[in-house]
Amino acid sequence: QQQVKQSPQSLIVQKGGISIINCAYENTAFDYFPWYQQFPGKGPALLIAIRPDVSEKKEGRFTISFNKSAKQFSLHIMDSQPGDSATYFCAASFAGGTSYGKLTFGQGTILTVHP
Amino acid sequence: GAVVSQHPSRVICKSGTSVKIECRSLDFQATTMFWYRQFPKKSLMLMATSNEGSKATYEQGVEKDKFLINHASLTLSTLTVTSAHPEDSSFYICSVKIGPGQGTPNTGELFFGEGSRLTVL
Fold first, then answer.
1. Strand arrangement of the beta sheet that strand B4-7 belongs to
2. Selected residue of B43, B47, B62, B106 to mutate for chain A interface (largest A Cβ count, 10 A)
3. pLDDT of B68-115, one tens digit each?
4. Most buried one in A34, A44, A45, B6, CB count within 10 A?
């Protein structure tokens, strides 16, 4: 009930291409869905987040698409750059109340962008 | 600048000793702090939720006597790994939930620390 499943496990993209990472969740009570970027030996950094009242959110080269009925959301990285090479995690949480901030993370996707 | 500071970033200790890791909220008062554990090439697993002035809430399967959490102030939470063993070697990461009314653009926003790598010999 609490799982968040992420795919693919690893992804290789050419510079300038589009990177797409997908996540699916089970708990319909989740209402906050962030994406994090993590470089080796560092903590995760928030990239972009979405609430289920919208189907898409864009910030710069990063877009989240959200499908509430399918309980799926995805991250699209446009014009991928070698500097984007990192591990990406999707997560889910509750937007309010005492449980907000207790993130359930996906398994992670190792993105490699070739020059 | 950084919102959350974790110390130490790396620590190596002998089996049987105890290690303390600090998580500090630098510019804001944190109503809640969270502790995560991450094994190499794996995801982050929530260990416990730490609230200032009250006992931490541990996730299922996490030994509270093994991983002692103290949240003495609105800016500091500590995780102590007691009687550490090699299987406790991991990357420990804290996150901070910023309380409302402190000028941040998103009330309740979460910030992660840089992590602390523990190696137990």
1. B4-7, B19-25, B76-81, B67-73
2. B43
3. 999 888 889 999 999 999 999 999 999 988 766 655 545 457 889 999
4. A44
pLDDT at B103 (0 to 100): 54
Shortest Cα distance, chain B CAs vs residue A14, angstroms:
23
Residues A28-82 pLDDT 10s:
989 889 999 999 999 999 999 998 899 999 999 999 999 999 999 999 999 999 9
Residue B102 DSSP one-character state: S
How many helices (H) and strands (E) chain B has is answered by 0, 11
Burial of B32 from C-beta contacts in 10 A (0-12 / 13-18 / 19+): buried
Number of CB atoms found within 10 A of residue B63's CB: 10
Distance from chain centroid for Cα A103: 12
CB contact under 8 A, B43 and A105: yes
Among A42, A102, A107, beta carbon nearest to B43:
A107
From residue A94, give the alpha-carbon distance in Å to each of A20, B104, B117: 24, 20, 28
